[in-house]
Amino acid sequence: MTVLSGRFVNQAAAFYALRAEAEKIGVALLPKETDVIREARDVRLAHYFRPAIAARIVDALGEDDTVLVLFPSRLTAFPAFPPEDSALRLLGRFAGVLDEGA
Prior knowledge:
The protein is α+β, with helices and mostly antiparallel strands. Helices cover 28% and strands 19% of the residues. It has one domain (2-93).
C-alpha cells in the first residue's frame, strides 16, 4: 500500500487534496480506494500493517498530522505520485493487508 502524509484541517480537506492531485494526472479517485487518518493513528494503521511498519509510518510523519493510506488502484500505479509541488508527501510503499470483507 502507498502511504502519504500532509497537514490538513480535517479529513475532508486531505481527501480533496488527494483527489485534486489524482485528477491532474487523469485518475478518478474513489473514496473506497483510500483511508484518511487524523486520529488514533496507531490503532487505525494496525488494521493494515504489522506493528513495526505502523511505527515506521508514525515516526516518518514529522510535523504532518494526517496519514493517507492508498489501496492498490490506478493511482498507486503512478511511480511519480504525488508530484514534488504537492501538499502530499510520499512516506513509502509498504506491505499490508486489505480486508475487503470488513
